[in-house]
Amino acid sequence: SSSWWSHVEMGPPDPILGVTEAFKRDTNSKKMNLGVGAYRDDNGKPYVLNCVRKAEAMIASKKMDKEYLPIGGLADFTRASAELALGENSEAFKSGRYVTVQGISGTGSLRIGANFLQRFFKSSRDVYLPKPSWGNHTPIFRDAGLQLQAYRYYDPKTCSLDFSGAMDDISKIPEKSIILLHACAHNPTGVDPRQEQWKELAALVKKRNLLVYFDMAYQGFASGDINRDAWAVRYFIEQGINVVLSQSYAKNMGLYGERAGAFTVICSDAEEAKRVESQLKILIRPMYSNPPLNGARIASIILNTPELRKEWLVEVKGMADRIISMRTQLVSNLKKEGSSHNWQHITDQIGMFCFTGLKPEQVERLTKEFSIYMTKDGRISVAGVTSGNVGYLAHAIHQVTK
Amino acid sequence: VAAYRTDEGQPWVLPVVKKVEHMIAGDNSLNHEYLPILGLPEFRANASRIALGDDSPAIKENRIGSVQSLGGTGALRIGAEFLRRWYNGNNNTATPVYISAPSWENHNSVFVDAGFKDIRTYHYWDAAKRGLDLQGLLDDMEKAPEFSIFILHACAHNPTGTDPTPDQWKQIAAVMKRRFLFPFFDSAYQGFASGSLDKDAWAVRYFVSEGFELFCAQSFSKNFGLYNERVGNLTVVGKDADNVQRVLSQMEKIVRTTWSNPPSQGARIVATTLSSPQLFAEWKDNVKTMADRVLLMRSELRSRLESLGTPGTWNHITEQIGMFSFTGLNPKQVEYMIKEKHIYLMASGRINMCGLTTKNLDYVAKSIHEAVTKIQ
Description:
The structure holds two protein chains of two kinds. By secondary structure, chain A is α/β, with parallel strands linked by helices. Helix content of chain A is about 45%, strand content about 15%. Chain A has 16 helices and 13 strands. The radius of gyration of chain A is 22 Å and the shape is globular. Helix content of chain B is about 45%, strand content about 15%. The longest helix of chain B is centred in the C-terminal third of the chain and has 32 residues, at about 275-310. Chain B: Keywords: Amino-acid biosynthesis, Aminotransferase, Cytoplasm, Pyridoxal phosphate, Transferase.
């Protein structure tokens, strides 16, 4: 007898997963996986932060129960997340005119927000993403029932921000549409606006009366300074733009698999925030009832324990500094190789990822001839670069680009 | 709230869970890296094995799949989202979804939010006889449009505590097979209901043996006491490996836009426990402890009510199973219980048996007696 599922198509293979699978099969001892979206230390190993280990030890020593969290998550965590993003001196934070719910890392937080907007933001079905954006943004918003549009963002000619193109496109976005902005460390390009450019963007979205959705997955991880990385979010709010925001602790606390994240709505006042919160809970309950505790509790202990918070700030700066240092070393090694190309964008860009500017044919050669794996768009994860392999990487890039 | 309590009225972290957590904490080779989209492989395989049985023909024939999910709710949601996209055509939001009357109130929301437009109820609880309305249930299945989806409680029906007998399950399966109805099991209490994993999985396994393709949403919240770690699993049973593989590839896409990949802590605890014979035995023992306490409270409450001569029959208290009991108290009597006796039950008369302890049994029995005799 036949199956209910005979007509179900095979889903397309995940492009990034494909890179990792191919990397695993490669027997070349010099192979490099630059597709990985997770931080690696200078030995190429996953890094569990010391402050995380300490928080875990604290948790283990207390005899805590395993009772369900509230639908909106761990209160100490959500409050600390809001404060981390908005800043302790933020008027929006102090007045309580916000609601923050715990989400399943960045993805889950984005999805809650997308569903919330689909249900309650009736002015528009359109979400404007920067071109390019994180690959998962599109299906998340689509599955939530929204439509995707784009604004110019990355200039492949200069490997930097197409600011005039962005401003031009944004000025034409219909009023009351939704615009998504990467708060810092744009994924996949690593190209962020400068503060002066953020100011112009803020003025423009305010003029166009757009609903701003910030995705902040790398606070602290980009520049090494949590306040600097949150500058754009805070500036927009100060300008009277009531943003919505998703946060992730996957990278900046290395809590990837624990799924710690948060979704925030800046409201007119605390009363509105309560109403919004009630609706967010109604969305969350039929999705997974209530969120997982472990990651949120680790993050909460770190954020709320002064010594651990200090230690975290040092460690996150350490990760950011190592990335920045690898960028610098890659550029200097390319120069040493004798490359005549301008590789300044590698150090201008910020965060985990770098749009090298390499073309698909060059990427293919890197993989085939040098066992260096990255996505076809020329994006590398700088986290996969170490002082031990940066020379090899520079040599290989030079070979395929000279 | 549906959580187990000890005889002291306290939450209970299972001893085997404490042990395994300690092991995990001491294992420096572990880190917090992302799990695969579909979850921890050792968890998925073991979780499905628990539901289907070690000797399941479906497992032997390699035609099962598993999706680690955020609790039972998450498993239901992924299954519902998949069914809406791929079952009975493409994106057929009109496929009727049948939920028992009554059921866990979140069932309705899960399927509504997954996009289904036609959610119906099927007869289940017979308030007059305080038991299963089997004939009403079967009639609804006969009348249901072909290909309708039926949400079935694998055991310990929430909120009535009333399960079909094996014979009744056989009748249900026969109608469903004949009418091409899709079985979507919700299994939130395996082991917790009777104290036996196998007994509590009988219905699911029977349907598998009858050749059904089905989904089973599993929760490890209650039977592992891992409520806040959100440990669940969606087990998919298909006709063959190829079909299951395609189903899973599409479920992966759904997971990716919902939570990307599931939380690792709880899955690790369960996987470690289920894959060690010794820990598995300890776990079964812990589960039996919980189930036995609830069974004891049921029999003690019933015997007290019968000794007091409380009007009505009270055998349903021990015939029902699991965490909940539909006492049969009417809304006025419930109000009396809450206002005058400070005993909290739902307006439906549902009581959480886990709230009973040796210390409060007398008080609860006396209060029920008062409510029934004073209030009509």
